[in-house]
Write a structure and sequence with these properties.
Elements lengths: L1 E10 L3 H14 L3 E7 L6 E11 L10 E6 L2 H7 L3 E9 L1 H4 L8 E3 L2 H9 L5 H13 L4 H10 L5 H20 L16 E4 H11 L4 E4 L6 H9 L1 H4 L2 E4 L3 H13 L4 E5 L1 H17 L3 E7 L16 H6 L8 E3 L4 H18 L2 E7 H5 L1 E4 L13 E2 L1 H5 L17 E2 L25 H13 L1 H8 L4 E4 L5 E6 L3 H11 L5 E6 L1 E3 L9 H7 L2 E6 L5 H10 L5 E4 L8 H9 L3
Parallel strand pairs: 1-4, 4-5, 5-6, 8-9, 8-10, 10-11, 11-13, 12-13, 15-16, 18-19, 18-21, 21-22
Antiparallel strand pairs: 1-3, 2-3, 2-14, 7-14, 12-20, 17-19
């Protein structure tokens, strides 16, 4: 079982409402799903859609054929009817769209009329649509009623009852008026949770001890800000919408200096404004975590689309030589571990850490069996309380063999905690001499980098141990690469190498993946950018150059069928 449901319409028509509701039903039914969005940068109007891929086995990426198209406007019919699978159906309301389509693939469901007749309100048309889709698929309606009860905020009994009647009316209509529907939904398994990419990052940050989040809203990172704010009261968080990105990164540095684990999030344009702050964190050795959620540039570019063009920008942005750590998760599970490690290593080595994502990852949704809190690590590397007070003397930037100085909490003891953005001595006071400058650069950069590098993990190897074809990627392309390996494995020996740990690049002792690349007949680097940022990085760090690359940069993610076609053209 593997069905693709697409809900299309204009912004403001409730596309996301239907998508969220159906996703909740499928997850509570025990099915696996992968959902992604495509939306324009408008509050109302334009053409948007949400896709939900439903399966009885884990799925990780978008696919092309549409099995059920819910068309909320005429544009959806015009644009997406040609994408239907052989048994695909279009669900639409001829009264609402003021057009009747004489085509056996079209199922005319009077969303508005049924909503008014059974729910008493026109606004419940989306509830009718959700019910109709479930009826066509053969999924029970009681779970829809349960999902609506959970989703509605402060509903009155009248509203609850109206939505239940509207849901059941839509469900019955879908069953009765699609007798030739050939969808076979298999039996249920254990209930699952649905999680969005941004939510996974926010949850991992909270579990890792983050208690201050400051950001300026910028798509596609805004979901982290919204989620953190919604959980502030529950977890004792302070969430601040800053006036701009410069303020945001400086605020989290101030909070971190005061002893609070802190994070910010932005996209490429906002990160450009944070660059000076990244250098400040490097000079003052202040641990912070920054989420860089990419979108296509330059300038405003495609503000609601996806791209992987800011990799090198994230790794090297900042004046001077700034040590940093960078991860690029491609699934919620990877995000839990990457964010947790980012907070841990940032504080352990007193450096900024980056979580690099993109719109495709940020707005996509997956099903999970659950989250194991025991997998999260919390190590307090700060010197405070009695241990701090008992020190005979303290210097914030004291020279050590590892380059890591004691990180104290100001105010915890009589000792003074001083740092400065200018070059400074061990106590944090400004200096001008060359000798101290050399020692400080060696301390905060050259001594730390090998230690941090030893903590970085090699790319995940999935597939054949001796592949003739190797697909290489990073970040949000994890899912589509994994599914491509599964699809091709019956024909040849294929494997995937997916990079989540990006910087410092895994040290030579952990570069076994190079043997896999060199032994393969064909190695293909797959990226959502025009110039091959990861391919460049691998060549710079290892000398290996890809003979084949697949680059997509139209603002849309790879689909399973689309990538397989591209791969086939290179084999």
């Amino acid at each position: 079982m593997d069905y693709n449901i697409k809900i299309g319409g204009a912004a403001g028509q409730g596309i996301q409402t239907i998508g969220d509701t159906l996703s909740a039903v499928f997850a509570r039914s025990g099915y696996h799903l992968f959902s992604h969005q495509d939306y324009e940068s408008r509050v109302r109007g334009g053409h948007n859609f949400t896709c939900i891929r439903l399966s009885d086995t884990p799925v990780y990426a978008p696919r092309d054929p549409v099995d059920v198209l819910v068309a909320l406007d005429n544009a959806s019919i015009e644009r997406h009817t040609g994408e239907l699978s052989s048994d695909g159906k279009v669900v639409y309301d001829s009264g609402g769209l003021k057009r009747k389509v004489d085509d056996p693939r079209f199922v005319d469901v009077p969303f508005v009329r049924l909503a008014e007749e059974h729910g008493g309100r026109k606004v419940m048309a989306n509830t009718v649509a959700s019910g109709a889709v479930l009826g066509m698929l053969g999924v029970e309606v009681d779970l829809l009623v349960e999902a609506l009860t959970r989703a509605l905020k402060h509903p009155t009994p009248e509203i609850l009852e109206g939505n239940e009647r509207a849901a059941r009316a839509g469900h019955s209509y879908g069953v009765e008026h699609c007798p030739d529907c050939r969808f076979a939904v298999s039996g249920r398994s254990v209930r699952k949770m649905v999680i969005e990419g941004n939510q996974a990052i926010a949850l991992a940050a909270i579990a890792s001890g983050c208690r201050f989040y400051s950001a300026y809203p910028m798509t596609p990172s805004t979901g982290i800000l919204n989620f953190m704010a919604s959980k502030a009261a529950d977890y004792g968080l302070v969430v601040e919408q800053a006036e701009d990105e410069m303020s945001a990164i400086n605020m989290i540095q101030g909070a971190s200096f005061a002893g609070v684990r802190s994070m910010t999030g932005t996209s490429g344009g906002g990160f450009a404004l944070m660059v000076e702050g990244m250098s400040l964190a490097g000079m003052t050795e202040t641990p912070v975590v920054v989420v860089l959620a990419q979108r296509p540039g330059p300038a405003t570019g495609f503000p609601t689309r996806t791209e992987q063009s800011d990799l090198l920008f994230g790794l090297f942005a900042g004046h001077g030589e700034v040590p940093r750590i960078a991860f690029a998760p491609g699934t919620p599970e990877q995000a839990f571990r990457a964010v947790n490690r980012a907070f841990d290593l940032a504080e352990k080595y007193q450096v900024p850490a980056l979580i690099i994502t993109d719109q495709h990852y940020a707005d996509s949704r997956w099903t999970l069996e659950g989250i194991d809190p025991e997998t999260f690590v919390y190590n307090d590397y700060r010197v405070g309380g009695e241990a701090f007070a008992e020190l005979p003397e303290y210097a914030r930037h004291s020279f050590t063999d590892s380059g890591v100085s004691p990180l104290a909490v100001p105010g915890d003891a009589p000792h003074l905690v001083v740092t400065d953005s200018d070059e400074h001595d061990e106590e944090g006071h400004i200096v001008e001499d060359a000798e101290t400058r050399v020692k400080m650069v060696e301390k905060r950069l050259l001594r730390k980098l090998p230690l941090i590098g030893a903590e970085m993990e090699p790319p995940e190897h999935y597939g054949s141990d001796s592949p003739e074809v190797v697909l290489v990627g990073w970040g949000s392309n994890y899912g589509v690469l994994r599914e491509a390996v599964d699809a091709l494995s019956g024909e040849r020996e294929v494997a995937m190498l997916h990079f989540c740990d990006l910087w410092p690049f895994p040290l030579p002792a952990r570069q076994e993946f190079l043997e896999v690349l060199r032994a393969a007949r064909t190695a293909i680097c797959v990226e959502n950018n025009a110039t091959g940022k990861l391919a460049w990085l691998i060549r710079a760090e290892t000398g290996f150059e890809f003979a084949e690359r697949i680059n997509r940069f139209d603002g849309r993610p790879f689909t399973c069928e689309g990538l397989l076609e591209e791969i086939d053209g290179r084999l």
